[in-house]
Design goal:
There is one protein chain. This protein has 602 residues and is an alpha+beta fold. The longest helix is centred in the middle third of the chain and has 29 residues. Strand 19 and strand 20 form a beta hairpin. It has a six-stranded antiparallel beta sheet with strand order 1-9-5-4-3-7, covered by helices on one side. Strands 10-18-19-20-25-22 form a six-stranded antiparallel beta sheet. Helix 4 crosses helix 14. The termini are far apart.
Length: 602
Protein backbone atom coordinates (compact mmCIF):
# COMPACT_ATOMS: atom_id res chain seq x y z
CA UNK A 1 0.00 0.00 0.00
CA UNK A 2 1.26 3.45 -0.90
CA UNK A 3 0.25 6.42 1.26
CA UNK A 4 0.82 10.07 0.39
CA UNK A 5 0.35 13.37 2.23
CA UNK A 6 0.53 16.65 0.32
CA UNK A 7 0.77 20.12 1.82
CA UNK A 8 -0.01 23.00 -0.53
CA UNK A 9 0.66 26.62 0.33
CA UNK A 10 -2.05 29.00 -0.89
CA UNK A 11 -0.64 31.93 1.07
CA UNK A 12 1.71 34.75 0.10
CA UNK A 13 4.68 33.74 2.28
CA UNK A 14 6.81 30.62 2.54
CA UNK A 15 5.56 28.03 4.99
CA UNK A 16 7.34 25.48 7.17
CA UNK A 17 5.41 22.72 8.88
CA UNK A 18 6.00 19.50 10.75
CA UNK A 19 4.00 16.38 9.89
CA UNK A 20 3.59 13.58 12.41
CA UNK A 21 2.48 10.24 10.96
CA UNK A 22 1.23 7.93 13.71
CA UNK A 23 1.09 4.15 13.62
CA UNK A 24 -1.52 3.42 16.28
CA UNK A 25 -3.15 0.28 17.74
CA UNK A 26 -6.48 1.07 16.14
CA UNK A 27 -7.74 -0.22 12.82
CA UNK A 28 -9.26 1.90 10.07
CA UNK A 29 -12.53 0.11 10.76
CA UNK A 30 -13.91 1.19 14.17
CA UNK A 31 -15.60 -1.20 16.62
CA UNK A 32 -19.07 -0.63 15.14
CA UNK A 33 -17.70 -1.95 11.84
CA UNK A 34 -16.32 -5.08 13.51
CA UNK A 35 -16.41 -8.31 11.54
CA UNK A 36 -14.28 -11.22 12.76
CA UNK A 37 -10.81 -9.84 13.45
CA UNK A 38 -11.54 -6.62 11.56
CA UNK A 39 -12.54 -3.48 13.37
CA UNK A 40 -11.58 -1.78 16.62
CA UNK A 41 -8.36 -2.24 18.57
CA UNK A 42 -5.46 -4.12 17.03
CA UNK A 43 -2.83 -4.44 19.80
CA UNK A 44 0.74 -3.27 19.11
CA UNK A 45 3.18 -4.64 21.67
CA UNK A 46 6.51 -4.02 19.95
CA UNK A 47 7.84 -1.49 17.49
CA UNK A 48 11.35 -1.57 16.02
CA UNK A 49 13.12 0.78 13.61
CA UNK A 50 15.89 -0.71 11.49
CA UNK A 51 17.35 0.22 8.12
CA UNK A 52 14.63 2.76 7.39
CA UNK A 53 11.73 0.37 8.10
CA UNK A 54 9.37 0.47 11.07
CA UNK A 55 8.33 -3.08 11.98
CA UNK A 56 5.11 -3.67 13.91
CA UNK A 57 5.25 -6.78 16.11
CA UNK A 58 6.13 -9.63 13.76
CA UNK A 59 3.87 -8.63 10.89
CA UNK A 60 3.41 -5.11 9.57
CA UNK A 61 6.05 -2.90 7.99
CA UNK A 62 6.07 0.84 7.20
CA UNK A 63 8.82 2.46 5.12
CA UNK A 64 8.92 6.21 4.49
CA UNK A 65 10.09 6.96 0.95
CA UNK A 66 10.47 10.58 2.04
CA UNK A 67 13.25 11.01 4.62
CA UNK A 68 11.89 11.12 8.17
CA UNK A 69 13.69 13.46 10.54
CA UNK A 70 12.76 11.28 13.47
CA UNK A 71 11.25 7.91 14.25
CA UNK A 72 10.30 6.97 17.76
CA UNK A 73 7.72 5.09 19.75
CA UNK A 74 5.43 5.88 22.65
CA UNK A 75 4.00 3.65 25.35
CA UNK A 76 0.54 4.00 26.81
CA UNK A 77 2.20 5.13 30.03
CA UNK A 78 3.52 8.22 28.23
CA UNK A 79 0.05 9.72 28.55
CA UNK A 80 -1.67 11.88 25.95
CA UNK A 81 -0.34 11.34 22.44
CA UNK A 82 -0.95 15.01 21.61
CA UNK A 83 1.15 16.11 24.60
CA UNK A 84 3.89 13.65 23.71
CA UNK A 85 4.01 15.01 20.16
CA UNK A 86 4.54 18.47 21.60
CA UNK A 87 7.58 17.21 23.48
CA UNK A 88 8.90 15.45 20.38
CA UNK A 89 8.61 18.66 18.39
CA UNK A 90 11.02 20.37 20.78
CA UNK A 91 13.78 17.79 20.37
CA UNK A 92 16.34 17.31 17.67
CA UNK A 93 16.92 14.20 15.58
CA UNK A 94 17.45 11.03 17.57
CA UNK A 95 17.81 7.47 16.38
CA UNK A 96 14.72 5.32 16.84
CA UNK A 97 14.74 2.54 19.39
CA UNK A 98 12.67 -0.56 20.04
CA UNK A 99 9.56 0.15 22.08
CA UNK A 100 7.55 -2.48 23.92
CA UNK A 101 4.20 -2.10 25.62
CA UNK A 102 2.76 -5.21 27.29
CA UNK A 103 -0.70 -3.58 27.26
CA UNK A 104 -0.67 -3.52 23.46
CA UNK A 105 -0.95 0.27 23.08
CA UNK A 106 2.45 1.14 21.60
CA UNK A 107 2.35 4.01 19.09
CA UNK A 108 4.93 4.70 16.40
CA UNK A 109 5.70 8.27 15.35
CA UNK A 110 7.37 9.31 12.09
CA UNK A 111 8.25 13.01 11.90
CA UNK A 112 8.70 14.92 8.64
CA UNK A 113 9.72 18.52 8.01
CA UNK A 114 7.72 20.11 5.18
CA UNK A 115 8.56 23.38 3.43
CA UNK A 116 6.64 25.19 0.72
CA UNK A 117 7.10 28.38 -1.19
CA UNK A 118 4.13 30.48 -2.23
CA UNK A 119 1.83 28.58 -4.56
CA UNK A 120 3.84 25.37 -4.22
CA UNK A 121 3.55 22.14 -2.28
CA UNK A 122 5.51 19.47 -0.48
CA UNK A 123 4.76 15.76 -0.35
CA UNK A 124 5.47 12.90 2.05
CA UNK A 125 5.14 9.32 0.76
CA UNK A 126 5.20 6.07 2.74
CA UNK A 127 4.63 2.44 1.90
CA UNK A 128 3.04 -0.18 4.12
CA UNK A 129 2.72 -3.95 3.86
CA UNK A 130 2.56 -7.19 5.79
CA UNK A 131 5.82 -8.39 4.24
CA UNK A 132 9.00 -6.79 2.85
CA UNK A 133 7.89 -8.00 -0.59
CA UNK A 134 4.66 -6.01 -0.31
CA UNK A 135 6.72 -2.96 0.65
CA UNK A 136 8.80 -3.37 -2.48
CA UNK A 137 5.70 -3.70 -4.65
CA UNK A 138 4.25 -0.53 -3.12
CA UNK A 139 7.36 1.44 -4.02
CA UNK A 140 6.34 1.31 -7.66
CA UNK A 141 4.85 4.60 -8.92
CA UNK A 142 1.12 5.08 -8.41
CA UNK A 143 -1.07 3.32 -10.96
CA UNK A 144 -2.51 5.50 -13.71
CA UNK A 145 -6.18 4.50 -14.00
CA UNK A 146 -6.72 6.76 -17.02
CA UNK A 147 -5.15 4.04 -19.14
CA UNK A 148 -7.69 1.49 -17.90
CA UNK A 149 -10.97 3.28 -17.33
CA UNK A 150 -12.19 4.84 -20.61
CA UNK A 151 -12.64 8.55 -20.04
CA UNK A 152 -13.55 9.60 -23.58
CA UNK A 153 -16.84 7.70 -24.01
CA UNK A 154 -19.09 10.34 -22.45
CA UNK A 155 -18.95 14.12 -22.24
CA UNK A 156 -21.56 16.73 -21.39
CA UNK A 157 -21.88 20.39 -20.60
CA UNK A 158 -22.64 21.82 -17.16
CA UNK A 159 -22.69 19.52 -14.15
CA UNK A 160 -23.02 16.54 -16.48
CA UNK A 161 -19.24 16.13 -16.48
CA UNK A 162 -19.14 15.83 -12.71
CA UNK A 163 -21.66 12.99 -12.90
CA UNK A 164 -19.60 11.32 -15.64
CA UNK A 165 -16.32 11.64 -13.75
CA UNK A 166 -17.89 9.95 -10.73
CA UNK A 167 -18.57 6.92 -12.94
CA UNK A 168 -14.88 6.68 -13.82
CA UNK A 169 -13.97 6.45 -10.14
CA UNK A 170 -16.77 3.96 -9.52
CA UNK A 171 -15.47 1.63 -12.23
CA UNK A 172 -11.92 1.87 -10.88
CA UNK A 173 -13.20 1.03 -7.39
CA UNK A 174 -14.84 -2.14 -8.69
CA UNK A 175 -11.54 -3.17 -10.26
CA UNK A 176 -9.29 -2.26 -7.34
CA UNK A 177 -11.33 -4.20 -4.76
CA UNK A 178 -10.93 -7.47 -6.67
CA UNK A 179 -9.00 -10.32 -5.10
CA UNK A 180 -7.39 -11.83 -8.15
CA UNK A 181 -10.30 -12.80 -10.40
CA UNK A 182 -12.87 -12.51 -7.60
CA UNK A 183 -15.17 -9.50 -7.77
CA UNK A 184 -15.88 -8.34 -4.22
CA UNK A 185 -18.21 -5.62 -2.91
CA UNK A 186 -15.63 -4.23 -0.49
CA UNK A 187 -11.96 -4.29 0.50
CA UNK A 188 -12.32 -5.24 4.18
CA UNK A 189 -15.64 -6.39 5.65
CA UNK A 190 -17.00 -7.72 2.34
CA UNK A 191 -14.03 -9.68 1.05
CA UNK A 192 -16.36 -12.32 -0.35
CA UNK A 193 -17.84 -12.87 -3.81
CA UNK A 194 -21.61 -12.92 -4.10
CA UNK A 195 -22.90 -13.81 -7.55
CA UNK A 196 -25.56 -11.16 -6.96
CA UNK A 197 -22.88 -8.48 -6.66
CA UNK A 198 -20.84 -10.06 -9.43
CA UNK A 199 -23.73 -9.92 -11.91
CA UNK A 200 -24.25 -6.21 -11.27
CA UNK A 201 -20.54 -5.38 -11.19
CA UNK A 202 -20.01 -7.45 -14.33
CA UNK A 203 -22.74 -5.53 -16.16
CA UNK A 204 -21.12 -2.25 -15.14
CA UNK A 205 -17.61 -3.36 -16.13
CA UNK A 206 -18.79 -4.52 -19.56
CA UNK A 207 -20.17 -1.03 -20.17
CA UNK A 208 -16.76 0.35 -19.20
CA UNK A 209 -14.93 -1.97 -21.67
CA UNK A 210 -13.52 -4.20 -18.92
CA UNK A 211 -14.32 -7.49 -20.66
CA UNK A 212 -11.31 -9.42 -19.35
CA UNK A 213 -12.18 -8.79 -15.70
CA UNK A 214 -15.67 -10.20 -16.26
CA UNK A 215 -14.39 -13.24 -18.14
CA UNK A 216 -11.88 -13.91 -15.35
CA UNK A 217 -14.66 -13.75 -12.75
CA UNK A 218 -16.88 -16.14 -14.73
CA UNK A 219 -14.06 -18.67 -15.09
CA UNK A 220 -13.25 -18.34 -11.38
CA UNK A 221 -16.87 -18.79 -10.23
CA UNK A 222 -17.88 -21.54 -12.66
CA UNK A 223 -16.30 -24.46 -10.72
CA UNK A 224 -18.46 -23.51 -7.71
CA UNK A 225 -21.68 -24.37 -9.58
CA UNK A 226 -22.84 -27.74 -8.30
CA UNK A 227 -23.16 -30.82 -10.47
CA UNK A 228 -26.95 -30.45 -10.36
CA UNK A 229 -26.74 -26.88 -11.68
CA UNK A 230 -27.41 -25.18 -8.32
CA UNK A 231 -25.55 -21.85 -8.15
CA UNK A 232 -24.23 -20.93 -4.68
CA UNK A 233 -24.99 -17.40 -3.60
CA UNK A 234 -21.51 -16.61 -2.31
CA UNK A 235 -17.95 -17.93 -2.44
CA UNK A 236 -14.90 -17.05 -0.35
CA UNK A 237 -11.64 -18.64 0.77
CA UNK A 238 -13.65 -21.26 2.65
CA UNK A 239 -15.61 -22.29 -0.42
CA UNK A 240 -19.31 -21.92 -1.20
CA UNK A 241 -21.62 -20.40 1.41
CA UNK A 242 -24.37 -22.84 2.50
CA UNK A 243 -27.00 -20.07 2.74
CA UNK A 244 -29.73 -20.49 0.11
CA UNK A 245 -30.51 -17.39 -1.92
CA UNK A 246 -32.52 -18.25 -5.01
CA UNK A 247 -31.68 -15.12 -6.99
CA UNK A 248 -28.26 -16.68 -7.66
CA UNK A 249 -29.34 -19.02 -10.48
CA UNK A 250 -30.81 -16.33 -12.71
CA UNK A 251 -27.94 -13.96 -11.96
CA UNK A 252 -25.41 -16.53 -13.13
CA UNK A 253 -27.25 -17.09 -16.40
CA UNK A 254 -27.78 -13.35 -16.93
CA UNK A 255 -24.10 -12.56 -16.28
CA UNK A 256 -22.86 -15.11 -18.81
CA UNK A 257 -25.36 -13.99 -21.43
CA UNK A 258 -24.47 -10.35 -20.83
CA UNK A 259 -20.78 -11.09 -21.25
CA UNK A 260 -21.47 -12.85 -24.54
CA UNK A 261 -23.51 -9.89 -25.82
CA UNK A 262 -20.70 -7.43 -25.14
CA UNK A 263 -17.66 -9.66 -25.70
CA UNK A 264 -18.55 -12.90 -27.55
CA UNK A 265 -16.25 -15.75 -26.56
CA UNK A 266 -17.10 -19.04 -28.24
CA UNK A 267 -14.42 -20.95 -26.34
CA UNK A 268 -15.69 -19.86 -22.93
CA UNK A 269 -19.29 -20.52 -23.90
CA UNK A 270 -18.37 -23.96 -25.19
CA UNK A 271 -16.96 -24.84 -21.78
CA UNK A 272 -20.09 -23.61 -20.01
CA UNK A 273 -22.95 -25.08 -22.09
CA UNK A 274 -23.33 -28.32 -20.10
CA UNK A 275 -23.35 -26.49 -16.77
CA UNK A 276 -25.78 -23.85 -18.08
CA UNK A 277 -28.21 -26.54 -19.21
CA UNK A 278 -28.07 -28.10 -15.74
CA UNK A 279 -28.78 -24.73 -14.10
CA UNK A 280 -31.86 -24.36 -16.30
CA UNK A 281 -33.11 -27.74 -15.09
CA UNK A 282 -32.24 -26.78 -11.53
CA UNK A 283 -34.50 -23.71 -11.82
CA UNK A 284 -37.29 -25.85 -13.28
CA UNK A 285 -36.99 -28.32 -10.44
CA UNK A 286 -37.01 -25.61 -7.77
CA UNK A 287 -40.34 -24.04 -8.75
CA UNK A 288 -42.86 -24.79 -6.03
CA UNK A 289 -46.67 -24.89 -5.84
CA UNK A 290 -46.87 -21.12 -6.25
CA UNK A 291 -45.15 -21.41 -9.64
CA UNK A 292 -42.33 -19.28 -8.22
CA UNK A 293 -38.87 -20.02 -6.91
CA UNK A 294 -38.99 -21.18 -3.27
CA UNK A 295 -38.64 -18.94 -0.23
CA UNK A 296 -35.11 -17.63 0.27
CA UNK A 297 -33.08 -14.96 2.04
CA UNK A 298 -31.74 -13.15 -1.01
CA UNK A 299 -32.73 -9.86 0.64
CA UNK A 300 -30.99 -9.06 3.94
CA UNK A 301 -34.33 -8.01 5.35
CA UNK A 302 -35.62 -11.56 4.74
CA UNK A 303 -32.96 -13.31 6.81
CA UNK A 304 -35.26 -13.64 9.82
CA UNK A 305 -38.07 -15.05 7.69
CA UNK A 306 -37.26 -16.22 4.16
CA UNK A 307 -40.03 -15.41 1.69
CA UNK A 308 -41.01 -15.74 -1.96
CA UNK A 309 -39.03 -12.74 -3.17
CA UNK A 310 -40.16 -11.35 -6.52
CA UNK A 311 -36.57 -10.17 -7.01
CA UNK A 312 -35.49 -13.84 -7.29
CA UNK A 313 -38.04 -14.58 -10.00
CA UNK A 314 -37.23 -11.44 -11.98
CA UNK A 315 -33.58 -12.47 -12.15
CA UNK A 316 -34.53 -15.99 -13.20
CA UNK A 317 -36.84 -14.72 -15.94
CA UNK A 318 -34.12 -12.42 -17.26
CA UNK A 319 -31.45 -15.10 -17.11
CA UNK A 320 -33.61 -17.68 -18.89
CA UNK A 321 -34.72 -15.15 -21.49
CA UNK A 322 -31.14 -14.13 -22.23
CA UNK A 323 -29.95 -17.72 -22.37
CA UNK A 324 -32.77 -18.62 -24.77
CA UNK A 325 -31.58 -15.95 -27.20
CA UNK A 326 -27.97 -17.02 -26.76
CA UNK A 327 -28.76 -20.68 -27.34
CA UNK A 328 -30.83 -19.84 -30.43
CA UNK A 329 -27.94 -17.81 -31.87
CA UNK A 330 -25.60 -20.77 -31.39
CA UNK A 331 -27.85 -23.38 -32.92
CA UNK A 332 -28.83 -25.03 -29.65
CA UNK A 333 -32.49 -25.06 -30.52
CA UNK A 334 -33.63 -27.57 -27.89
CA UNK A 335 -32.06 -25.58 -25.07
CA UNK A 336 -33.47 -22.35 -26.52
CA UNK A 337 -37.00 -23.81 -26.56
CA UNK A 338 -36.60 -25.13 -23.02
CA UNK A 339 -35.40 -21.76 -21.71
CA UNK A 340 -38.12 -19.86 -23.54
CA UNK A 341 -40.93 -22.09 -22.28
CA UNK A 342 -39.60 -21.99 -18.72
CA UNK A 343 -39.18 -18.20 -18.66
CA UNK A 344 -42.71 -17.72 -20.01
CA UNK A 345 -44.09 -20.04 -17.36
CA UNK A 346 -42.18 -18.27 -14.59
CA UNK A 347 -43.00 -14.78 -15.90
CA UNK A 348 -46.71 -15.65 -15.97
CA UNK A 349 -46.51 -16.90 -12.39
CA UNK A 350 -44.54 -13.84 -11.28
CA UNK A 351 -46.92 -11.24 -12.69
CA UNK A 352 -49.98 -13.23 -11.59
CA UNK A 353 -48.61 -13.44 -8.05
CA UNK A 354 -47.86 -9.72 -7.93
CA UNK A 355 -51.40 -8.95 -9.10
CA UNK A 356 -52.95 -11.41 -6.62
CA UNK A 357 -50.91 -10.07 -3.70
CA UNK A 358 -51.91 -6.52 -4.57
CA UNK A 359 -55.57 -7.51 -4.76
CA UNK A 360 -55.55 -9.54 -1.52
CA UNK A 361 -53.74 -6.82 0.44
CA UNK A 362 -55.42 -3.85 -1.29
CA UNK A 363 -52.05 -2.46 -2.35
CA UNK A 364 -51.65 0.42 -4.77
CA UNK A 365 -47.91 -0.32 -5.25
CA UNK A 366 -45.73 -3.22 -6.48
CA UNK A 367 -44.85 -5.44 -3.49
CA UNK A 368 -41.41 -6.94 -2.94
CA UNK A 369 -42.54 -10.39 -1.83
CA UNK A 370 -45.57 -12.63 -1.61
CA UNK A 371 -45.61 -13.15 2.17
CA UNK A 372 -44.73 -9.67 3.38
CA UNK A 373 -46.31 -7.63 0.58
CA UNK A 374 -43.59 -5.16 1.49
CA UNK A 375 -42.95 -1.74 -0.01
CA UNK A 376 -39.48 -2.06 -1.56
CA UNK A 377 -38.96 0.41 -4.42
CA UNK A 378 -35.23 -0.36 -4.53
CA UNK A 379 -35.87 -4.03 -5.31
CA UNK A 380 -38.72 -3.12 -7.67
CA UNK A 381 -36.28 -0.90 -9.56
CA UNK A 382 -34.28 -4.02 -10.43
CA UNK A 383 -37.46 -5.65 -11.75
CA UNK A 384 -37.86 -2.69 -14.13
CA UNK A 385 -34.24 -2.57 -15.23
CA UNK A 386 -34.27 -6.34 -15.86
CA UNK A 387 -37.68 -6.72 -17.50
CA UNK A 388 -38.58 -3.15 -18.52
CA UNK A 389 -42.31 -2.36 -18.23
CA UNK A 390 -44.04 -5.48 -19.63
CA UNK A 391 -47.81 -5.20 -20.19
CA UNK A 392 -48.71 -7.68 -17.39
CA UNK A 393 -47.11 -5.33 -14.87
CA UNK A 394 -49.64 -2.67 -13.88
CA UNK A 395 -48.07 0.65 -14.87
CA UNK A 396 -50.31 2.59 -12.54
CA UNK A 397 -49.03 0.55 -9.60
CA UNK A 398 -45.45 1.06 -10.74
CA UNK A 399 -45.99 4.81 -10.94
CA UNK A 400 -47.62 4.84 -7.52
CA UNK A 401 -44.63 2.94 -6.12
CA UNK A 402 -42.28 5.70 -7.20
CA UNK A 403 -44.65 8.56 -6.48
CA UNK A 404 -44.81 7.27 -2.90
CA UNK A 405 -41.05 6.78 -2.74
CA UNK A 406 -40.33 10.28 -4.02
CA UNK A 407 -42.86 11.90 -1.68
CA UNK A 408 -41.30 10.13 1.31
CA UNK A 409 -37.76 10.86 0.10
CA UNK A 410 -38.51 14.57 -0.31
CA UNK A 411 -40.07 14.77 3.14
CA UNK A 412 -36.88 13.31 4.59
CA UNK A 413 -34.72 15.76 2.64
CA UNK A 414 -36.79 18.63 4.03
CA UNK A 415 -36.53 17.09 7.53
CA UNK A 416 -40.32 17.03 7.80
CA UNK A 417 -40.14 13.50 9.21
CA UNK A 418 -37.62 11.89 11.51
CA UNK A 419 -35.15 9.57 9.84
CA UNK A 420 -31.81 8.03 10.74
CA UNK A 421 -30.28 6.59 7.58
CA UNK A 422 -30.86 5.39 4.04
CA UNK A 423 -29.14 2.94 1.73
CA UNK A 424 -27.36 4.28 -1.37
CA UNK A 425 -28.55 1.14 -3.17
CA UNK A 426 -31.39 3.55 -3.95
CA UNK A 427 -29.11 4.87 -6.70
CA UNK A 428 -30.58 2.14 -8.92
CA UNK A 429 -33.97 3.89 -8.70
CA UNK A 430 -32.52 6.51 -11.08
CA UNK A 431 -32.62 3.92 -13.88
CA UNK A 432 -36.21 2.96 -13.03
CA UNK A 433 -37.33 6.60 -13.19
CA UNK A 434 -35.65 7.03 -16.57
CA UNK A 435 -37.58 4.05 -17.90
CA UNK A 436 -40.81 5.54 -16.57
CA UNK A 437 -40.06 8.75 -18.45
CA UNK A 438 -39.61 10.71 -15.21
CA UNK A 439 -36.51 12.61 -16.30
CA UNK A 440 -36.73 15.45 -13.76
CA UNK A 441 -37.13 13.06 -10.83
CA UNK A 442 -34.22 10.93 -12.04
CA UNK A 443 -31.99 14.01 -12.24
CA UNK A 444 -33.19 15.17 -8.83
CA UNK A 445 -32.02 11.87 -7.34
CA UNK A 446 -28.75 11.98 -9.28
CA UNK A 447 -27.88 15.40 -7.90
CA UNK A 448 -28.74 14.33 -4.37
CA UNK A 449 -26.47 11.29 -4.50
CA UNK A 450 -23.62 13.30 -6.02
CA UNK A 451 -24.00 15.86 -3.24
CA UNK A 452 -24.01 13.08 -0.62
CA UNK A 453 -20.79 11.34 -1.65
CA UNK A 454 -18.76 10.55 1.46
CA UNK A 455 -16.32 12.19 1.17
CA UNK A 456 -17.26 14.08 -2.03
CA UNK A 457 -13.81 14.01 -3.62
CA UNK A 458 -13.64 10.21 -3.36
CA UNK A 459 -16.78 9.61 -5.46
CA UNK A 460 -18.07 6.89 -3.15
CA UNK A 461 -21.04 5.91 -1.03
CA UNK A 462 -21.25 3.62 2.01
CA UNK A 463 -23.69 0.75 2.17
CA UNK A 464 -25.63 2.71 4.81
CA UNK A 465 -25.55 6.52 4.84
CA UNK A 466 -26.47 8.07 8.17
CA UNK A 467 -28.23 11.39 8.57
CA UNK A 468 -25.48 12.29 11.02
CA UNK A 469 -22.40 11.64 8.91
CA UNK A 470 -20.29 11.37 12.08
CA UNK A 471 -22.56 8.86 13.81
CA UNK A 472 -20.72 5.83 15.28
CA UNK A 473 -22.79 3.39 13.26
CA UNK A 474 -22.34 0.61 10.70
CA UNK A 475 -21.45 1.81 7.20
CA UNK A 476 -20.47 -1.36 5.39
CA UNK A 477 -17.30 -1.07 3.33
CA UNK A 478 -15.96 2.08 1.71
CA UNK A 479 -15.86 1.97 -1.20
CA UNK A 480 -18.87 -0.31 -1.49
CA UNK A 481 -18.46 -1.52 -5.03
CA UNK A 482 -21.89 -3.04 -5.60
CA UNK A 483 -23.20 0.49 -5.10
CA UNK A 484 -20.40 1.83 -7.32
CA UNK A 485 -21.55 -0.56 -10.06
CA UNK A 486 -25.17 0.51 -9.60
CA UNK A 487 -24.03 4.10 -10.11
CA UNK A 488 -22.29 3.23 -13.40
CA UNK A 489 -25.43 1.48 -14.66
CA UNK A 490 -27.71 4.33 -13.56
CA UNK A 491 -25.46 6.97 -15.12
CA UNK A 492 -25.24 5.12 -18.44
CA UNK A 493 -29.03 4.72 -18.56
CA UNK A 494 -29.36 8.50 -18.79
CA UNK A 495 -27.53 8.38 -22.12
CA UNK A 496 -28.78 5.03 -23.46
CA UNK A 497 -30.73 2.00 -22.27
CA UNK A 498 -32.22 -1.04 -23.96
CA UNK A 499 -36.01 -1.23 -23.96
CA UNK A 500 -37.32 -4.74 -24.41
CA UNK A 501 -40.93 -3.63 -24.83
CA UNK A 502 -39.96 -1.16 -27.58
CA UNK A 503 -37.28 -3.47 -29.03
CA UNK A 504 -35.00 -0.46 -29.31
CA UNK A 505 -32.11 1.39 -27.77
CA UNK A 506 -33.44 4.55 -26.14
CA UNK A 507 -31.14 7.58 -26.26
CA UNK A 508 -30.88 10.64 -24.01
CA UNK A 509 -34.00 9.79 -21.97
CA UNK A 510 -32.38 10.92 -18.73
CA UNK A 511 -30.02 13.73 -19.70
CA UNK A 512 -30.51 17.29 -18.51
CA UNK A 513 -31.31 20.12 -20.91
CA UNK A 514 -28.38 22.07 -19.46
CA UNK A 515 -26.02 19.34 -20.65
CA UNK A 516 -26.82 20.30 -24.27
CA UNK A 517 -25.22 23.75 -24.08
CA UNK A 518 -22.10 24.53 -26.11
CA UNK A 519 -20.73 21.30 -27.59
CA UNK A 520 -23.51 19.41 -25.80
CA UNK A 521 -23.50 15.65 -25.31
CA UNK A 522 -20.79 13.56 -26.91
CA UNK A 523 -21.07 9.79 -26.82
CA UNK A 524 -18.17 7.93 -28.43
CA UNK A 525 -18.13 4.15 -28.72
CA UNK A 526 -20.31 3.56 -25.66
CA UNK A 527 -20.73 -0.23 -25.27
CA UNK A 528 -24.36 -1.35 -25.37
CA UNK A 529 -26.00 -4.76 -25.81
CA UNK A 530 -26.69 -3.77 -29.43
CA UNK A 531 -23.24 -2.52 -30.38
CA UNK A 532 -21.01 0.50 -29.84
CA UNK A 533 -23.01 3.72 -29.72
CA UNK A 534 -21.78 7.12 -30.89
CA UNK A 535 -23.90 10.25 -31.07
CA UNK A 536 -23.84 13.96 -30.33
CA UNK A 537 -26.73 16.11 -29.19
CA UNK A 538 -26.69 19.86 -28.73
CA UNK A 539 -28.97 22.85 -28.64
CA UNK A 540 -28.78 25.21 -31.62
CA UNK A 541 -31.35 27.68 -30.32
CA UNK A 542 -34.36 27.71 -28.01
CA UNK A 543 -36.47 25.65 -30.41
CA UNK A 544 -33.92 23.53 -32.27
CA UNK A 545 -31.77 20.56 -31.32
CA UNK A 546 -29.21 18.91 -33.57
CA UNK A 547 -28.32 15.23 -33.28
CA UNK A 548 -25.75 13.23 -35.20
CA UNK A 549 -25.76 9.45 -34.87
CA UNK A 550 -23.11 7.10 -36.22
CA UNK A 551 -23.98 3.61 -37.52
CA UNK A 552 -23.04 0.51 -35.56
CA UNK A 553 -26.18 -0.25 -33.57
CA UNK A 554 -28.26 -3.32 -34.35
CA UNK A 555 -31.97 -2.57 -34.55
CA UNK A 556 -34.02 0.52 -33.85
CA UNK A 557 -33.14 3.70 -31.99
CA UNK A 558 -35.54 5.96 -30.10
CA UNK A 559 -34.22 9.45 -29.38
CA UNK A 560 -35.93 11.05 -26.38
CA UNK A 561 -34.14 14.36 -25.75
CA UNK A 562 -34.94 16.93 -23.05
CA UNK A 563 -37.46 19.37 -24.53
CA UNK A 564 -39.16 22.54 -23.34
CA UNK A 565 -42.14 21.90 -25.62
CA UNK A 566 -43.28 19.24 -28.09
CA UNK A 567 -41.68 18.11 -31.34
CA UNK A 568 -43.25 19.77 -34.36
CA UNK A 569 -40.87 18.64 -37.12
CA UNK A 570 -37.78 16.51 -37.73
CA UNK A 571 -35.49 17.31 -40.66
CA UNK A 572 -32.87 14.78 -41.78
CA UNK A 573 -29.78 15.55 -43.85
CA UNK A 574 -30.40 12.71 -46.34
CA UNK A 575 -34.07 13.54 -46.85
CA UNK A 576 -35.50 10.43 -45.20
CA UNK A 577 -38.66 10.71 -43.14
CA UNK A 578 -38.53 9.65 -39.51
CA UNK A 579 -41.45 8.79 -37.29
CA UNK A 580 -41.89 11.00 -34.27
CA UNK A 581 -44.38 11.83 -31.57
CA UNK A 582 -44.49 14.79 -29.20
CA UNK A 583 -41.42 13.67 -27.24
CA UNK A 584 -39.38 11.20 -29.28
CA UNK A 585 -37.99 10.32 -32.70
CA UNK A 586 -37.70 6.73 -33.95
CA UNK A 587 -35.02 5.50 -36.35
CA UNK A 588 -35.86 1.95 -37.45
CA UNK A 589 -32.36 1.10 -38.67
CA UNK A 590 -29.14 2.97 -39.22
CA UNK A 591 -26.68 1.83 -41.90
CA UNK A 592 -25.05 5.21 -42.53
CA UNK A 593 -24.45 8.32 -40.36
CA UNK A 594 -27.49 10.53 -39.91
CA UNK A 595 -27.86 14.15 -38.87
CA UNK A 596 -31.24 15.42 -37.79
CA UNK A 597 -32.64 18.65 -36.51
CA UNK A 598 -35.52 18.55 -34.09
CA UNK A 599 -37.85 21.54 -34.03
CA UNK A 600 -40.16 22.21 -31.09
CA UNK A 601 -43.02 24.60 -30.46
CA UNK A 602 -41.09 26.33 -27.67
Amino acid sequence: MRIGYRLRNHGSTALAARLFVLIRPFQVSPPWQQHGALGGVRPIRRLSWHDGVLQIDDGGHVRPLTRATRCTGLRAAAGSVAAALGRLAETRWAAGEDVTDPDGFATGVLTFEMNTGTGSGDTVVLTAGATPEQLADAEEPGFDWSGVVPTSMLAAAGDGMEAIRASWTAAAQVLVTRDGAALQPGPRRYRRSWIRDGAVMGAALLRMRQHAAVEDFIRWYAPQVRADGFVPCCVDANGADPLVEHDSHGQWLALIAEHQRFAPDAALLGELWPSLARTVECIAGLLDATGLLPVSASHEGYLAQPVHSYWDDAWAVRGLRDLAALAQAHGRDALARRCDALQRRLADALFASIAATRAQRALDFIPGSLEWADFDPTATATLLTLLDLPPPLDRGAVEQTYARYLADWRRKRRNEVDWANYTPYEIRIIGALVRLGWRDAALELLRFFLADRRPPAWNQWPEIAWRDAHAPAHLGDLPHTWIAAEYVLALHSLFAYESETQDALVLAAGVDADWLAGDGLRVRGLPTPRGALSYTLRRLDERTLQCEIAPGIRGALVLRPPLAGTITAVRVNDGRRLRHDAASVTIDALATPVQLRIHTDR
